[in-house]
Amino acid sequence: MSRRDAERDSFEEYVAARRAALLRTAYLLTGHREDAEDLVQVALVKVVPRWGRIADDPEPYVRKVLVNESISRWRRRRWREVHTDTLPEPAVEGPGADRVALQQALARLAPRQRAVIVLRYYDDLTESQAARLLGVSVGTVKSQARDALRRLRELVPDLAHELEEVRR
Amino acid sequence: MTTLHDRLAELADDAPPGGPAPELWARGRRYHRVRRAGTLAIVSAAVLVLVAITGLSWQQSGGLPEPAAPPGATRALPDRLWTPSPWLPGTDEDGPLGDLAVVMRSDRSSWSGTEQGLVGVSATTGEYRFLDLPDQAPGDVALSPDGRKVAYWLTGTTSGSPSDTGPVTGVAVYDATTGDVKRADISTEHGLDASALLWADDGELVLSYGQYRGGEGDDPMQQSSATPSEHYWWRLDQDRPQELPMPEGTRRADLVGASGGRVVLTDSTRYWCYYLDQPGFAWPMLGEAGLAMSTQPVFLTTSRFAVVRGSWNPNSILVGDASLRGGARTHTVPDSQGTYEILGWDGDRLIVERGTDGSRRAYVNASVFRVDSRTGRSVELVRLASAEQIRQVQVASDLYDVPTVAGKEPPTPFDPRAVTGGLALVAVLGAGAVVVWRRRVEA
């Protein structure tokens, strides 16, 4: 088996094992199922050229590409989409309403703030891991997280309790 | 208790399950190839443009300097001159030019600005190059008759405060063949008031200067006035100029011409011929009644003189017998009214700068002509680039009687600031294009 074939097998094994987890993170980053699928595919395609160097521990680099691609896409789309300051009322009442509210609140965050929230509180990365992945300082991660949590508290008052827990 | 992590995990449950994702590896390889090919194309294009700019710039600069002509190479005047590019190289970069046919003042540019420089034109190759004369002070330069040496005033340190920036503190001779400089520093408190610098022969220089009476901080009158000029003779086989002993009546006379080991002196009403090998004696040449004297330089042979009439140019040429005392026999050279300047004698013929149409109209095209002093018939020797070169050109007088050769147009190098800016711009644009391409290429 050639080195290239070995790398391909390793890549495909990684995709099979981690694609679902990456899709969950991507969904939180984008808020859309189709975008999440596309984001993960693009991130995986983009890491192929480097696979030989990252095959031993691909996760940090894949996530870095995923997050940066997400931010880049948001920047590109910002010029094409019409923004509104008022969100439509949640269409869902009852048990699912909190989930929709959180999803819509995440969509109102700046992409880097959203990434900080997802990396810190969903992927459970440390501040320094998140900073390294985003290519910013730890201080920036702290301030982005603080601002993002405050904004979430304003947008989803029902989440205040959970968010207070986070602050502590 | 529910946490934010739980809430996010719950939300992430809505993520797509992730169906089959075929050919991700193949897409990744293709993405890699396209990205690399695009990068290579951009870098290649940028490199091509950089090479093109550099090559064009090199070509415009004339490429490598021509090798020095071998000893005994044919020397001649070019039949025409061009306005040199201010970005021509200098002798500091490309080395000595060898025997010179012409020197001319011309603008010289550098990264910091433009100032006046001195361009030499090779008598053997026709090449143009700025002459880098070490410690050159502003003021006259003089090309020797054989074109091998250029005399110039030196600037340096004065023992007291200088009268001006760049004070004259000596005289030097640059050897155009070897690049060597023979210096004669002259002790001065405030600087020299240099008034004449002329070649009396190939190895003999005559010069005049006074001493400024004051420097910075002194009375302005003192600072701007100088002692009367004294005349000096510098045979280059000696270390320094010797003062010329002047006979009574000529001490205040100005030095206005030199050739063949003789100098011409004038007090603006009379002229004298001073033979350098007979120090202390001056022959009266032209009597008080002989001429409406000119302020223009006088050129003489052993028996004749020539001068542009009057005090304004262009004008006609007056020639006469230089040996007479009083009441000189003179005549005006026919059809010579468009003459700006006399450069010298070539036997019985005069070498002059004159408008090409022979009229008195200023700022017409001008050339160096050989003019028969009796008939006024003229032959064009060297066509000047423009009337702006009038009085800016000196010619090696030994070459007057040598047939001219076709002039060679000097290169016109690009402004290196524009070239460097262009190179930097291409490099930045290329780097930017690579970054944009690598970001935008579809995965």
Element order of chain B: H for helix, E for strand: HHHEEEEEEEEEHEEEEEEEEEEEEEEEH
Number of helices of chain B: 5
Largest β sheet strand count, sense and barrel closure of chain A: none
The quaternary organization reads as heterodimer
Structure description:
The complex is a heterodimer of chains A (168) and B (443). Helices cover 74% and strands 0% of the residues of chain A. By secondary structure, chain A is mainly α. Chain A is elongated, with a radius of gyration of 17 Å. Chain B has 443 residues and is α+β, with helices and mostly antiparallel strands. Chain B has a domain at 42-61 and 414-443. In chain B, 18% of the residues lie in helices and 33% in strands. Chain B is built from five helices and 24 strands. In chain B, the strands form six sheets. Chain B has a four-stranded antiparallel beta sheet with strand order 3-2-1-24, with no helix packed on it. In chain B, strands 4-5-6-7 form a four-stranded antiparallel beta sheet, with no helix packed on it.
How are the secondary structure elements laid out?
The complex is a heterodimer of chains A (168) and B (443).
Chain A: H1 3-30, H2 33-47, H3 51-54, H4 59-78, H5 97-108, H6 111-122, H7 127-134, H8 138-155, H9 160-167
Chain B: H1 4-12, H2 24-60, H3 91-94, E1 100-110, E2 113-122, E3 128-130, E4 136-143, E5 149-155, E6 168-175, E7 181-185, E8 192-201, E9 204-211, H4 220-224, E10 230-235, E11 242-243, E12 254-259, E13 262-266, E14 271-275, E15 282-286, E16 299-300, E17 304-308, E18 317-321, E19 330-332, E20 339-346, E21 349-355, E22 366-372, E23 378-383, E24 393-395, H5 416-440
Antiparallel strand pairs in B: 1-2, 1-24, 2-3, 4-5, 5-6, 6-7, 8-9, 9-10, 10-11, 12-13, 13-14, 14-15, 16-17, 17-18, 18-19, 20-21, 21-22, 22-23
